[in-house]
Each structure stands twice: as C-alpha cells, then as structure tokens.
Design brief:
This protein has about 500 residues and is of the alpha+beta class. It contains 13 helices and 34 strands. The strands form twelve sheets. A five-stranded mixed sheet has the order 28-27-26-34-29, with no helix packed on it.
C-alpha cells in the first residue's frame, strides 16, 4: 500500500516508517546502514561468532613451559638463595661449619658505635657490653627453611645474630653510657618538731639511649655499623609527691595519738615532737613508699628521761682493807630506785605505735640495792664511778682530787674491776671499730694511761666540756678534760691501781 506523501517499506520483520519528502536524506542513510550491517536474526546461535580452536601443539607446549619455569625458579631458590651478614654473603646450602665461621668472623671484632653529644664517637666491643655471640643458636636459626628467601632467591636474607647477655655487666655498661646533667630528686617526707614536711620531687636530665637494651641488642643482632645517638632524656624521680599521700596520712595519725606514761602517780604524755623523734623514715624506691620504723632505743631514751626525776642509780659502797686487816668504808653505798622492765616497755611501745590507737603505760619503780667494792690500801689509786661519771684520786685513805669523766657508752661500756696502769703515752694516735663495724681514727690523743687491754684514761679533746659528768659516750675508755688529763698523767705512775665500778 502506498499513501501520498509517505512510503512504507517492509524488510523481514522490521518496518521503517518513511518521513516526509523534505527529509529524504534519512532514507539514504538507512539504506547505507542496511548494506553495511546485516540485520540480526532471532536465532541466538546465528548471533554468536564461533571461537577458533587452539592448535594442538600450543596446547601441549603451554603447561610444559609453566612447569619448566617453576622448576627453574625452584632450582634458583635452592641453589642461589644466600645469607648476608655484614658485607659477606654465603649460600643457604652452606654446611654448619661454614655458617659457624661466618658468624664467628663477623662478630669477633664487632663493636657498637655511639655518637656522644660533643660529636665524638666511641666504640664498644661485645665484651664491653657483657654480650657473647651465641654461635650455635644463630646457626640453628639459619638452618631453618625460609620460604620467603626461597621465593625471592635474588634477595639475600639478612642474618639475625643471637647473643648471651650477662645482665649485671650489661647494666653496668648502660650506667657508664648515661651522662647525667641534672639528677632527679625524689619526693621526701620528714618530721620537723612534730610537723610533717613533704618535699616535692623534681625531674632530672641525662644523655642516654631511649630503650637502651632493646636499641643495642637490635643493632648487635644485625651487626649494624651506624652510630647510635645519645639523646637528651628526662630522668623521672623514683618517688613523686602523690605517692607519699598515704604515708603522710599514716604519719599524721601516729603523731596525733594519745599516749600516757604513769610513774609514781604522775601521768606524762609525749608530744607529737617526742613521738616523731622515735621514728626513722626511709624511702623505698621499689614500693614507691616511705618505710616507717620505730626505734626502740629512742623510745627507751624517752622513758629514761621521763623517769629521771623519780629515780636514781645505786651508788656502790667502797671499802678499803688496811694492811693490818682492818677495813674502812671510804664511800657509803646508796640504794637506787629504778623503773623495772624499761627495755620490755620500750619494745612494747615500739610494736604498737604504728597502730595509732593510743596507749596507757605504767612505769613501775622499785629499789635496787648497792654493791660493795673492796680495795686494798695503796699509796696512790684511782676510783672511777661509772654511774655518777666521776673519778677520784686517793693517796692511801685521803681523797686528793675529783674529776668529771665520760666513760663507755651503753653499747661500748667500760670494763668493771680492779686493774693497774701498765703503759703511758704523752701523745698517741688512736684507731678502733665502731658498733656498726666501721672504723674510727683519732690523731694525737694526749695523756694516755692504759689500765686494761685497750682501755685507758685519756684526754677526750673532741668532746664538749658539758659532756663530762653528764654523758657516757666513749668506746670504753675513761675520757677527761685536757687540764685534768695532764695532772693524772703526771700524778699516776705505771703500777697505779685503777678501780672501776657502777
């Protein structure tokens, strides 16, 4: 059918509607397309192009080629894989002996270089650092199968060297390697006249290696040659102010507790300052706390001080026997009054003080009888009263002079008995042992009179005059003032009797 002005053309199952005559150029284009592009069929088999099959020879060669590449790669991995230690490379197929030689040779003279702040570089051997090459462990590690090295056979595998470390020697080396610019100050706690004082901590500065052990060991494992740089680092205090909070609270409670000593019906209460004087404080860097210890000796001193006005020591009675057999009392004995069990009381107070619950303690007193000391009739003799801290010079029965002395301290008492002066020195250097095991040395001690072993009557020029007659503080000798010492030295010849008693 043909309609005027339009044309309809049917091709196969597709129809193209003609456009007006003024657009005939579209018909020309469609015609060209029809000739250039075949129309698609509804049959899908006809629409998919056929793939050209591979040649049988190619199909045979391809897997053989892949297999050959894998074999060659495996052979390269097996025979061309290498270890590298320092600048030396060896095959991974090397025997244990060769590997041992490699490790030994490369670490024998190995040194770690350290760059100091002044730009100087110092080197340290393994022995300097307390390290020793563990050859067998290193070789065993190398002998293990390394799949990554097998695959990447063209890349040498770096060797990790193992070491045995003497930790003490290594720590000593690290201490020498550190340059302290400003030491850190720990926070401190103290007691001043019953008041708790906390001193704040401060941070210090030093040159050193960050994570020093790990840094050095990492460098040594790879036999690295690049210098390690010392860096400016902070030194943190072992104990800071916040860590003393609990110790301060505990001390506050201890000092504030009520303690009553009752003696002869009188109650005496120590002040916070008194209680504080009984305490020894020390910092424990490991526990980050203050160690508070009660000194029972200081508690005993306080008890003696409290009891002093109520007690007095016994005075030994001195009796002289004359050559005719008669005797006479030279010094009348006096019974003493003392607190009984003072040491046990001091220990009990010490054991319970830190509980901060307060205490009520009785100080019972009782009489202590005097002792009788007998002496012969001597032309000249010296009596040393250790209790009253006095010495008397006699000519037969006549007292010619009295001296104030400072004899042996409680921990180092003067011997008690009857002796004779056996040696004299106008001046002598003295040395000996203290109670804590340390030694002392006192030069040019004047007017020395030895009466028993190392015990002597001599001048104690280093002690204040207030000590004589009041405090026994020597290592066992009888100390006197300079003027008194010269008089005794000139008055008492060798053989003079010395009687010491309480």
């Amino acid at each position: 059918m043909v309609h005027q002005g339009f044309g309809v053309v049917a091709r196969s199952q597709f129809a193209v509607e003609e456009v007006p005559a003024s657009h005939n150029y579209l018909s020309n284009i469609m015609g060209a397309v029809d000739h250039a592009i075949p129309l698609k069929s509804h049959n899908s088999a006809d629409a998919i192009p056929h793939k050209k099959p591979k040649h049988p020879l190619i199909m045979l060669i391809e897997p053989i080629a892949v297999l050959a590449i894998l074999i060659i790669w495996a052979l390269c991995g097996a025979f061309l894989s290498r270890f590298q230690l320092g600048n030396t490379k060896v095959s991974m197929l090397s025997n244990r002996g060769t590997l041992r030689q490699l490790v030994t040779a490369q670490t024998k003279d190995y040194k770690v270089a350290v760059n100091y702040p002044d730009k100087t570089i110092k080197t340290y051997s393994l022995s300097d650092m307390g390290m020793q090459t563990d050859v067998e462990t290193t070789v065993n590690s190398m002998r293990q199968f390394h799949i990554s090295s097998f695959i990447r056979w063209w890349q040498p595998k770096p060797v990790t060297v193992f070491y045995k470390v003497d930790q003490k020697a290594f720590n000593d080396f690290l201490a020498k390697l550190t340059i302290t610019i400003q030491p850190a100050e720990d926070a401190r706690i103290s007691i001043d006249n019953g008041n708790i004082v906390v001193t704040n901590s401060t941070t210090g500065k030093r040159y050193g290696l960050p994570n020093p052990q790990s840094t050095i060991e990492t460098t040594a494992r790879s036999v690295g040659t690049a210098p390690l740089n010392l860096e400016l680092l902070a030194i943190n205090p072992a104990i800071n102010t916040a860590q003393l909070t609990s110790s301060k609270a505990k001390l506050t409670a201890v000092l504030a507790q009520k303690i009553d000593f009752t003696i002869a019906g009188t109650v005496v209460s120590p002040s916070p300052a008194d209680i504080g004087s009984w305490l020894d404080l020390a910092s424990d860097k490991k526990t980050k706390a203050v160690v508070i210890a009660v000194n029972s000796g200081k508690v005993l001193e306080y008890i003696n001080k409290v009891a002093a006005r109520y007690i007095h020591p016994a005075r030994d009675q001195l009796v002289i026997t004359h050559s005719d057999g008669t005797s006479a009392v030279m010094v009348q004995g006096v019974n003493g009054i003392d607190v009984t069990g003072k040491s046990a009381i001091a220990t009990n107070v010490s054991n319970n003080l830190m509980e901060a619950k307060g205490m009520k303690i009785d100080l019972p007193v009782q009489s202590s009888p005097f002792k009788i000391v007998t002496a012969g009739e001597y032309d000249r003799w010296l009596e040393v009263d250790l209790t009253n801290k006095k010495m008397y010079a006699y000519e037969k029965n006549t007292l010619v002079r009295t001296f104030l002395v400072s004899a042996g301290a409680p921990a180092t008492p003067t011997v008690v008995g009857q002796y004779k002066i056996y040696a004299k020195y106008a001046q002598q250097d003295m040395t000996g042992n203290n109670v804590d095991g340390s030694t002392y040395f006192i030069p040019r001690v004047p007017w020395v009179n030895y009466f028993h072993g190392g015990y002597a009557i001599h001048v104690n020029y280093w002690a204040p005059l207030s000590r004589f007659g009041n405090i026994n503080s020597s290592h066992g000798c009888v100390g006197i003032s300079t003027n008194d010492g010269e008089w005794v030295y000139n008055w008492a010849p060798i053989g003079t009797t010395v009687i010491t008693h309480n």
